[in-house]
Specification:
With 108 residues, the protein is an all-alpha fold. It has a domain of 54 residues. It contains 2 helices and no strands.
């Protein structure tokens, strides 16, 4: 390459953190899909046959699916912050303890 800025570019380095986050997101979404499918199947079995065990498995699969989807969302947020797409919110300024909750100082 030639020109003024030919050497200014830095080569992107491989970052295993990005790969691990992507694998975690994929795994949790696949597990979520499987648990939703299993919950539907257990629900159909519970309604047709009236088995009490199927209702329990339905509840476990539903709770597991919620947990997997929550995990996927949390990993997506961490990946977006690692890539620089989003940033952490600014902390709120501390409230002066002498100021009442309404925000105005009491008249003296």
């Amino acid at each position: 390459m030639s020109g003024k800025r030919a050497g200014d570019r830095q080569r992107q380095k491989f970052r295993p953190t990005y790969l691990l986050l992507a694998i975690g997101i994929t795994a949790s979404l696949v597990a979520w899909g499987y648990l939703v499918y299993a919950a539907i199947d257990f629900g159909a079995t519970a309604r047709q046959d009236g088995e009490a065990a199927a209702w329990g498995f339905l509840a476990l699969a539903a709770i597991g699916a919620v947990a997997c989807l929550f995990l996927a969302f949390m990993l997506i947020v961490r990946l977006s912050r690692a890539l620089g797409l989003t940033h952490t919110p600014e902390p709120r300024p501390k409230r002066d303890p002498t100021t009442p909750k309404g925000g105005r100082r009491a008249a003296r």
